[in-house]
């Protein structure tokens, strides 16, 4: 196995071994024709708690998202996720986790289980990739990304350049190198080197919204507003969901005193990210400079509200709102 890929840790799952779960597949399902779904699900949850996953899982899969009883829906989703993970049924595990996040978005145990199981699923996929395709560029990328995550910047750059030496047309690699360079330093020489990498990325992948955005950021930090506006506009065209580009575009236009033009992207941003005080502040300034006092006052109040909510989220033991 490659050095930097994490090994899988499987703990706390209901089926002690895969053999137990496989043996249970010979048993009959828990929901007989005409049986009440809630009663069948309750029995399936009990079976899952005793490790009889293969027998319980078909009923849990069928019923968990349709139960009227909220507590039973919660317990069935948890049981389905744990059982699916224990028998390596990734699709069912993800379905259960998505259902739990939908119905119980702020439940600490749901958040913990999602973090734990998604991490396991990622590790399993990484291990399968490493074992099945050890010399592939994808494995090399995973190793380079691990170095990057550990902030071993020079080693990560060297790993990415090694990938490019073997696969010069592979997308995202030049962008990765540029991102590391910009994380390492903000001086002009480093920015210039990162800019070259991003331009190389766009030669390989002309539709890279992330590369366009990074070029816009380099220009914005340098006060080169026309170039920044061009790159941020291109980013927004390539990816309408890249809302950070709307904020950056609005800020750049405002810096050029083009306040009327800044309003549209800033309005798009605050609509998409209403909890960000910065967006409301920037829009308030644009409104103010174009004579829209009511709009400016409204956005300044929205900024204050967003700041207060952010403070409440950061406060320890903050009461639920």
Topology of this protein?
Blueprint (H helix, E strand, L loop, with lengths): L17 H7 L12 H13 L3 H11 L6 H17 L3 H14 L4 H25 L4 H13 L3 H14 L6 H12 L3 H17 L4 H13 L3 H14 L4 H13 L3 H14 L4 H13 L3 H22 L7
Helix pairs in contact: 2-3, 2-4, 3-4, 4-5, 4-6, 5-6, 7-8, 8-9, 9-10, 10-11, 11-12, 12-13, 13-14, 13-15, 14-15, 15-16
Q: In a few lines, what is going on in this structure?
A:
The chain contains 16 helices and no strands. It has 321 residues and is mostly helical. The longest helix has 25 residues, at 108-132.
CATH architecture of the largest domain: Alpha Horseshoe
- Overall radius of gyration: 26 Å
Q: Count the beta strands.
A: 0
How can the largest sheet be summarized? none
> What best-fitting shape do the alpha-carbon axes yield?
flat
- The quaternary state of the protein chains shown equals single chain
- Provide the succession of SSEs: HHHHHHHHHHHHHHHH
Query: Which percent range fits the helix content?
Result: over 70%
Class by SSE composition: mainly alpha
Strand content: under 5%
Low-confidence stretches: 1-30
CATH topology of the largest domain: Serine Threonine Protein Phosphatase 5, Tetratricopeptide repeat
Count up the domains. Answer: 3
Average pLDDT reading:
89
N/C terminus separation: 48 Å
Please provide a written account of the structure:
With 321 residues, this protein is mainly alpha-helical. The chain folds into 3 domains: 18-131, Serine Threonine Protein Phosphatase 5, Tetratricopeptide repeat; 135-206, Tetratricopeptide repeat domain (Serine Threonine Protein Phosphatase 5, Tetratricopeptide repeat); 228-315, Serine Threonine Protein Phosphatase 5, Tetratricopeptide repeat. Helices cover 72% and strands 0% of the residues. The longest helix is centred in the middle third of the chain and has 25 residues, at 108-132. The radius of gyration is 26 Å and the shape is flat. The relative contact order is 0.05.
């Amino acid at each position: 196995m490659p050095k930097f890929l994490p090994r899988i840790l499987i703990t706390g799952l209901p089926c002690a071994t895969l053999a137990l779960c496989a043996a249970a597949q010979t048993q009959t399902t828990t929901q007989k024709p005409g049986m009440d779904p809630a009663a069948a699900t309750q029995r399936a949850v009990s079976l899952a708690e005793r490790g009889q996953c293969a027998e319980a899982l078909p009923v849990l899969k069928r019923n968990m998202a349709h139960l009227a009883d909220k507590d039973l829906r919660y317990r069935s989703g948890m049981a389905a996720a744990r059982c699916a993970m224990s028998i390596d049924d990734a699709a069912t595990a993800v379905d259960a986790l998505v259902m739990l996040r939908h119905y119980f978005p702020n439940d600490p145990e749901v958040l913990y289980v999602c973090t734990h199981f998604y991490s396991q699923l990622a590790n399993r996929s990484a291990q399968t990739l490493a074992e099945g395709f050890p010399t592939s560029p994808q494995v090399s990328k995973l190793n380079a990304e691990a170095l990057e995550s550990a902030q071993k910047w020079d080693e990560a750059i060297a790993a990415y350049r090694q990938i490019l030496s073997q696969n010069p047309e592979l997308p995202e690699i030049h962008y990765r190198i540029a991102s590391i360079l910009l994380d390492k330093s903000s001086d002009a020489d480093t920015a210039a080197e990162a800019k070259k990498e991003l331009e190389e990325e766009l030669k390989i992948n002309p539709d890279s919204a992330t590369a366009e955005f990074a070029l816009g950021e380099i220009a914005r930090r340098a006060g080169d507003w026309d170039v920044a506006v061009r790159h941020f506009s291109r980013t927004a065209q390539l990816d309408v969901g890249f809302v950070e580009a709307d904020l950056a575009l609005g800020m750049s236009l405002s810096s050029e005193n083009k306040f009327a033009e800044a309003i549209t992207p800033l309005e798009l941003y605050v609509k998409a990210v209403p909890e960000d005080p910065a967006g409301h502040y920037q829009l308030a300034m644009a409104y103010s400079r174009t004579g829209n006092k009511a709009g400016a006052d409204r956005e300044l109040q929205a900024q204050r509200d967003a700041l207060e909510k952010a403070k409440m989220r950061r406060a320890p033991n903050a009461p639920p709102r």
